[in-house]
Amino acid sequence: MKNKLIFKFIALSLPLILIFILELILGIFNYGENYNLFNKITSENNTEYLVMNSGISKKYFKNTGFNSDNQSDLFLREKTENTFRVFIQGASTVVGFPFYKNGSFPRILKHRLSLTFPDKNIEIINTGITAVNSYTLWDLSDKIIAQKPDLVIIYAGHNEYYGALGVGSSISIGNYPAIVRSYLKLKNFRFFQLFENGYSKVFKPNEKSKYTVKETTLMEVMAKEQQIPYNSDVYNAGINQFKSNINKALDKYASNNIPVILSTVISNKKDIKPFISDDFNENKFDKNLKSNKSEAFKTANSNAKAAYKMGQFYLNKQQDSAKKYFHLAKELDMLRFRAPEKVNDIIINELSKKQGVYLLDSRKAMQKKSKSGFIDNDVLTEHVHPNVKGNFILADAFYNKIKEIKILDNWNHFISYDEAFNDISITRIDSIKGKFIVQDLKNSWPYKLNMSGTNPIAQYNYILKPTYEEKKAINLYAGREEWQNVMREAYHTYNNNKDYKNALKVAQSLISEFPEQTKVYEMAREICLKMNNRDYANYYSKKINQLKQK
């Protein structure tokens, strides 16, 4: 009997032992990917920092030609008592598309908090990755917890359908969150990567390969289910996916006593017509609309394009009616690059009620500061991504929320909205580059459905006599120059021309990108002295001393 039990134990354990040995061998030969979220780097004064691993996106994207699009925010490997550490989770809006660098709301927030608390080491670590959704947020949560955050900020919800592993995505393994989460756990093991790679080679699809980002927009590459009707099974699967994944991530943070600010998401309903709508008789609808016939209202309540036309009809007559129909048009839009309102409803009515979670309704903040009262082109670049003003409004809302929840004491250096707005440190070059990106996006699929499978001619090609900033922005966009080299040249150019305001913005952008280098703080201090801004110069002197003491 005893021998039988031993034999049974060995038989059951053997597969696990073999897998363990295989995992060791694969590790020795460095096969596969090591999906660390952070990598270690050492500064000029031998201080150890961590920075986000740009290769982490390989875990979520496969065969798309897409490389990680994320920020590189350094933070101390060993957290000090004087450190206030915030991790921000999300996708392209969090990353800062299309401005990146100091145009993203996390960088704007860090700059303002650092000035508000000059004696503290403020760390805002942006873990956003373009085109991911709640699966990635859940998957990264354990690695974020390991870094002992004082606060986590989540801004997400637009990518539940077409983001990596989403229910309508070209990169999907099904509509069951528990199975997808198990798959992501297995991806951490090299033996599973070996199995997955082998399977992909043996069972190659016979059909023509999908588009890659070299051939068309990332949006088209990711969108498999291009028509997802309102309240359909796929539609509801996306809602359930978001709810399930964020619920589990929030539970992890709560069990580790980490507070979370959870934000609603914003989208442009007024200036962006539905991408894909059912066909309808437009001429008949227009006549019925002008005649105020009930048939027009009936059509508008079931058709995305008709609802959008109804919103335009009421825009200068009845703003409430216009808002109603613009909202309905977005909800009925079958190409779901804008989150359904149910996502915000779940955030407000369910997820924000959980332990340790604080709600930030970004929609209200945006509407309050928008000139028209709509969340439109005044604050957004296109369908969902904020412009510089919009990113500042988001950063301002989070800044005031942090103050409200009293997670930091001593706000004696509180910076007002107007003062902070005048101190946004995005460079003119980065701003112009962002403008080029948006221009090209709006000349691509899905803004122009006939552009499917193609990329447009870059709009900067039409500029006959580009300015200095336009030339540098074009070189950055075309990949002809490195960002840090452009910034250093721009700093000296502005400084020599006594354009100190723009020189300071460049220096501040370099500080955000290279916070461990004393040289960039010295550059900022030099300009502040030339501007006779002693307080700002003293601030940078203090930061230089703090760096030297680490």
UniProtKB/TrEMBL annotation:
Annotated Gene3D superfamilies: SGNH hydrolase (3.40.50.1110)
Top-level taxon: Bacteria
A molecular-function term among this protein's GO annotations: hydrolase activity, acting on ester bonds
The keyword Transmembrane helix belongs to this UniProt entry's keyword annotation: yes
Keywords: Membrane, Transmembrane, Transmembrane helix
InterPro entries linked: SGNH_hydro_sf
Ranges in a coiled coil: none
Transmembrane segments: 12-32
Keyword Membrane: yes
Protein name, entry field: SGNH hydrolase-type esterase domain-containing protein
Organism: Polaribacter reichenbachii
